[in-house]
Amino acid sequence: MDSLFASGRIVDLILVAVALQATGLWAARRFADIGPGLGPLVWTLASGVGLMLAIRAGLTDAPWPVVGGFTLLGLACHLADLRQRWR
Questions:
Q1: How many Å separate Cα 67 from the centre of its chain?
Q2: How confident is the model over 26-41, as pLDDT tens digits?
Q3: Buried-state track 42-54, b at ≥16 Cβ within 10 A, e below 16
Q4: Mean of pLDDT values over 9-21
Q5: What pLDDT, on a 0 to 100 scale, did the predictor assign at position 31?
């Protein structure tokens, strides 16, 4: 378990789970016409992915600009999500 965190692979597993979740939501909307569409969720999912990448970069001792860049990416997506929901 230590190596899973030290290598950042734990974040890879979480990102796979997010991709599966997005696929499931898309399929539910597409084939059963239930649940939210991916359109409203894109920015929410993207902000989470940005933060997960920042965590992965931090776990793998990436330079601070990489960690900060992914954090800013998460923030930008979060702000886009808020803007979309505000309307």
A1: 15
A2: 999 999 989 887 777 8
A3: ebbbbbbbbbbbb
A4: 95
A5: 93
